[in-house]
Amino acid sequence: DTARRKALSREWQADVEPAHDTTRPAFKSDPRLLWLAAWLRTIAPDKVLLICRSQAKALAIEDALKQHSQIKAGAFHEGLTLVQRDRAAAWFAEPDGARLLICSEIGSEGRNFQFAHHLVLFDLPLDPAVLEQRIGRLDRIGQRHDVQIHVPFVQQSHQEVLARWYHEGLDAFASNVQGGRELFERFGSRLYDLAGQAGTGRGVLDSELETFIADTRRAYVDIGRSLEEGRDRLLEWHSFKPEIAAAVISAIRDEDDSLALDAFLLAVLDLYVIDVEELSPRTYRLGSAGVLVDDFPGLTSDRVTVTGDRARALNREDLQFLTWDHPLATGALDLLLGSEHGNCSFGRWTDGGVQEIYLEAIYVLECVAPARLHADRFLPPTPLRVIVDRRGTSVADNISSALLNERLKKGDGGRGLAGNPRVRDELLPRLMERTRELAQQASGAVVADARRTAAATLEHEATRLRELQKVNRSVRDEEIAALVEQRRVLEDYVGAARIRLDAVRLIYRGRG
User: Following CA atoms 264, 266, 269, 271 in sequence, which dihedral angle do they give, to the nearest 10 degrees?
Assistant: First the structure.
């Protein structure tokens, strides 16, 4: 009818010229809205993501739907603050949360909702790239179903023109559009004109639309054929090595299943008195509202929610996925390594058959060199573990770190053994000096190996440049000379690497 045509015309103008009409559209009796309300009842309890072009349209859909359905629906648009958007996305992600999330165009970028597989496109963009972005919110890693795309449209309107162009001309709802940018540049103006005619009520001849779709389809097929012929199949065959890939996948799965990172972070957070609330298995909210935790790397006064469950992190945009590379983990490691916590301790080893005293020391071999040399390529900070008995004899081959972790119990070094003047003033200094001697000896082999590696690597690079210079005049003598000089300077710096005491532990082995 005339009123509906006028409404569609205003919608078209607002879609292509956002400043043209700032009034909120009315969808109470819109056929698309009526279909949506009825359809949502048939697919319960599946979740649905709905995307439309503007904030005004999203709000209008939300208001109109309330009059036809009691479904739990959330909104996601630019009129909300970032916190409000996060909350809406989190509510949608919860199993018993919102079943429908109504998004403006900002929902088609950056947010991932692969836990849902129904996508309703309440309108369609002119640019195929934007359509790809919308579909990509669901069609991504972690999606376990075929994505179901639903495109309601009013016949003889701009919506039908766009829907048929995408479906019949580009097959865009079933597969990725190959050469979408080129096709849009070639056919975008004709698409705009045809949709505009329908959008303003002037109508479109069926023959004209059929011709346009046929032209698009031929171009789409031609571009697909060109891309197929241009594939480097030899490169594809050799780029995938199943055995190597399987090993990498297995290692990732083992790392995901390991609870070592969770245990480490929980222990560190407890040490620094950071509040931890466990929301679900391996999912934690860190920090208390209003309590400053800025001194802990990766935390602020705002609460942070993290998870060690990869599947949960993929489905929940508001959760940070914990890995050893996460700022919380690296920050906690730096905080511990740079502080005095744990660098001096005492342990008891209950053993009725042996009575002995051990001193375990950890030294770090460091190469202090200008950053431009990238010395850590060949000699990164390297820990050296030394453990000696009371006679100064190395026992590292017989007493491993794993064995100590299994046998040692916490002890009070301030009383008893460590408080004995003879132990403190005579034995400990002598054993400390002995551990330094052994660490210095061990560092020699590490430094020599690093120097050999650096010399071989840089000499190989210099040789490559000399050979390249024979056929390429742009390779200058100065470049080769600079590389040779870099090798000489780097060898000097690596050779001057020094050890630094990082931690020490006194161990008593004997009767408890």
Answer: -70
